[in-house]
Inverse folding.
């Protein structure tokens, strides 16, 4: 199941349609932020390693400021 999670998490889609009605969540905003800002969100939202190690980014301007101050001048995005 862990392998499928990684596959679905990299599709770039938030959800997948099965038939005409069933929707299955396959992507996570948390992981998409990792691809935008590589220095954050290494784990998953299900296990809070990023919160514990200070690499959590929830998409807010405050989280961006925290990450930028932690990484210093080399982080200019």
């Amino acid at each position: 199941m862990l392998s499928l999670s990684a596959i679905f998490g990299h599709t770039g889609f938030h959800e997948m349609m099965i038939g005409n009605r069933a929707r299955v969540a396959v992507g996570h905003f948390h992981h998409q932020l990792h691809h935008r800002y590589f220095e954050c969100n290494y784990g998953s939202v299900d296990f809070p390693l990023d919160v514990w190690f200070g690499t959590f980014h929830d998409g807010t301007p405050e989280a961006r400021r925290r990450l930028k101050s932690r990484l210093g001048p080399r982080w200019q995005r």
About this structure: The CA atoms of residues 16 and 42 lie 23 Å apart. The longest helix spans residues 61-71.
